[in-house]
Amino acid sequence: MAEDPYTTLGVPRAASDEDIRRAYRKLAKELHPDLNPANGSATEERFKKVSSAYRILGDPEKRRAFDRGEIDAHGEPRRAHFRNQYTRGARAEAGVGAGDFGFADVFSEFFNGARTAGGARGGGFAVRGGDVRYTLEVDFVEAVQGSVKRVSLPGGDALDLNVPAGVTDDQVLRLRGKGAHGMGGGEPGDALVEIRVRAHSQFKREGDDILLEVPITIDEAVLGAKVEVPTVSGRVQLTVPKGTSSGRVFRLKGKGVHPAGKVGQGDQLVTVRIVLPETIDDSLAYFLSEWRQKNKYDPGRK
Questions:
Q1: pLDDT: which is higher, 100 or 175
Q2: Within 10 Å of residue 211's Cβ, how many Cβ atoms?
Q3: What is the pLDDT of residue 302?
Q4: Could you give the angle at the alpha carbon of 95 between the alpha carbons of 91 and 101, nearest 5°?
Q5: pLDDT band at residue 186, thresholds of 50, 70 and 90?
Q6: Which of 1, 61, 104, 213 is most buried (most C-beta within 10 Å)?
Q7: Are 50 and 9 a contacting pair, CB within 8 Å?
Q8: How far is it, in rounded angstroms, from Cα 225 to Cα 21?
Q9: CATH code of domain 5-126
Q10: Where are the domain boundaries for CATH 1.10.287.110 in the chain?
Q11: Nearest-CA neighbor of 268 among 185, 174, 182, 203?
Q12: What is the pLDDT of residues 9-67, one digit of tens each?
């Protein structure tokens, strides 16, 4: 009796398709006879079982049929009702050995198109190098405006990485050919640089807009004023009209993020907050008490 394909691949029945692919790639790397010629016939036999299990679980339709009990671990129908549907494909696949299905599948799945030089097992082959990952931290303003960062790659090489304007936190930049070296003359892999944007003390990002909160005094709110506010490209004057309430939002057009290659630019949204002095002097207190007695203003509190 053939071993349960889930057991062969070492995955639970609830495993996702990606979990199954990942398990298969890992085992295929360890067991494929062309990559591990010294491991002997026992390893080759196990590789055949792994390949057979993946032929079932790697095909969503066959996996569902197996889970329903319609086909067995060989891919053969369990009941005559299903025989015509599966027999032809299952028997055709059953004749494929480690030198055919296994080799082509392994190299297309996880070597991204590695090629055989001799065609048969034992011939030379070239394998694309693996991708390497690492993280690069950039300042908030550098992420908005773009920058050039000197990056040290695995292996000691260094290069100037162009961080495009508008790059986002967790975005991955791909450096072609800067990964691990290939085998047998294969091309190198890529370097995948994951961006981490440092938080800013004043600015926050929301899509392509930049958010900023600015404190104003009570007299600026009542009488109006010109208030200087920062933007990522420098300081500008914001006009605060008379009678501005705390929480009012002003829009500075075009002062937001302009991602590289994208038409249009975000804005900067400035929220004003009225901040009272720590000490209320007698003159301010007297004025407001007189004003309150003469004016029955209701801001709408419930």
A1: 175
A2: 15
A3: 59
A4: 115
A5: confident
A6: 213
A7: yes
A8: 63
A9: 1.10.287.110
A10: 5-126
A11: 203
A12: 999 998 898 898 888 888 877 876 656 555 567 777 888 888 888 888 988 888 988 88
Q: Which of 124, 121, 132 is CA-nearest to residue 154?
A: 132
Averaged pLDDT of the chain: 80
Query: What residue spans in the chain does CATH classification 2.60.260.20 cover?
Result: 132-197, 204-294
- What's the pLDDT at 97? 35
Alpha carbon of residue 265 to chain centroid: 23
pLDDT digits (tens, 9 = 90+) for 204-224: 999 999 999 999 999 999 999
Give per-residue pLDDT as tens, 69-115: 888 888 788 754 444 444 444 443 433 333 333 333 434 444 444 44
CATH code given to domain 132-197: 2.60.260.20
Stated pTM of the model: 0.56
- The span from the CA of 167 to the CA of 258, in Å, is 10
Rounded to the nearest 10 degrees, the angle between the axes of helix 17-31 and helix 103-110 is 120
Which amino acid makes up residue 207? G
DSSP string of 189-202, one letter each residue: --EEEEEEEPPPSS
40: tokens are 């002997």
**Alpha-carbon distance 141 to 230, whole Å?**
12
| Residue 240 three-state SS | strand
H runs (alpha helix) in 124-165: 140-145
**DSSP 8-state class, residue 281:** -
Burial 81-101 (b: 16+ CB within 10 A, else e): ebeeebeeebeebeebebeeb
Q: What is the pLDDT of residue 36?
A: 59
**Backbone phi, then psi, for 244, in 5-degree steps?**
-80, 130
Euclidean distance between CA atoms 297 and 24, whole angstroms: 73
The CATH-assigned architecture of domain 204-294 is Sandwich (2.60)
